[in-house]
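Following up on my earlier thread - several people asked me to post the actual chain instead of describing it. Fair enough. Here it is, all 193 residues.
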Amino acid sequence: MTGTGIQADNDRKLGPGKMVLVVGPSGAGKDTLLNALKERLADDPGFRFATRQITRPADGATETHIPISEADYDEAVTAGRYALAWRAHGLGYILPAELDDVIKAGGTVVANGSRHALPDALRKYENPLVLLITAPKAVLAERLAARGRESRAEIERRLERTQLDMQDIPNLARIENTGTVEEALEKILGKLA
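Reply from S.P.:
Thanks for posting it. Predicted structure:
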């Protein structure tokens, strides 16, 4: 049986597996670390990496995702056909319902998340883990400039939003991504153990 949206607070939380949501500001290296983690754990059947459904066309410049229409997003949310769903930056995001089956079977789901998804994830899952990938603002600015996708003014606006106030989030692990990918990956693996 697949998941059907968010459970009420008085319902039993979904487990015994773990929902791992990777969050952080643009330029922190979330996608790089998610790809490295996926490669490292490719042969471990206990881990499943989520492919998000997003109300954005596939363009090759952004993360690999399943494009969906606004109508499809609204229909899935209304029907409760999702593990997690949220809106951010003018887009709708869905983690598919079948991911809940992995968690019910004791597996670990790893997903590119959002702070907008955290309240529902914390209500719904018995074992949520939030991996906050961070870096100092100067490092973020350098990485965003190297991408060449945004003007200096756009980068400045984006950096203004980097202050993620997440002190009250339980099961939060901060990973400062300023060294090598391998160093950050080892920190992440330590939190997943």
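The mean pLDDT is 86. That should answer part of your original question.
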